[in-house]
Amino acid sequence: MKILTGNDLGTGDVVWWTGGDWSRHVSDAVDVDNHGEAIAAREEAARRVNAPYVIDADQTPQGPRPAHIKDRIRATGPSVRPDLAVKPADPAAGSWVI
Amino acid sequence: MYKYDEYDQSIVDARVEDFRDQVARRIAGEISEDQFKPLRLMNGLYLQLHAYMLRVAVPYGTMDSRQMRMLGAIARKYDRGYGHFTTRQNIQYNWIKLEEAPDILADLATVEMHAIQTSRRRRGGRSPAVGGIAPPVEQLPPGIQLSAAQVQDRGDGIG
Asked: Which label site among A1, A59, A86, B50 has the fewest CB atoms less than 10 Å from its CB?
């Protein structure tokens, strides 16, 4: 599957396209098929996202899992500060990244 | 320690207001990210893996306690209570909001600090030492020292 990601313009937060909006949680991401570039262009022009790009992901029972580790780290939060992670209380986050 | 003279202070203060205007125009959609990116990098503001990052220069690696306290105050007020001292004679804040970046630079200017040219993408893409374009002397930030090779590269006789 293909999913769309970027950063929030104001905060820089990592965000994921949910089909109608942007979420901080990759589990909310939807398959954009071959529409990713068009959605990215439209959303960036409206300043609802900054520097969006399309990535490959695998659909899993827990939701989409980005194919590249860079985006799994982006989805999880800083590995050096797990207390500042997107889900700080999730003990399985580390194994999900690797 | 390096101390600002009146010209240094006026250059830094003017740069803060320039950047404030540029950020406002970016948020308002008057300029695109492609247009804004070199402007924010010239002021030390990066978009990194998890958020915006602001890299603040520590010229010559020396600070007084007034400046150190301001760095702590900025971490508490604008970031998450911490910063990252790096091997590049600077401190990086990792959770900066775009609209607050000009306020941070204004606070830094009150203690003779700035984030100008802390990025390699500052002007001409590369350091003059490796073939980039040197900025005019009047655009150099306070506390910047050119190497002999850089002065020679300039070819303008200014040393």
From this structure: A59
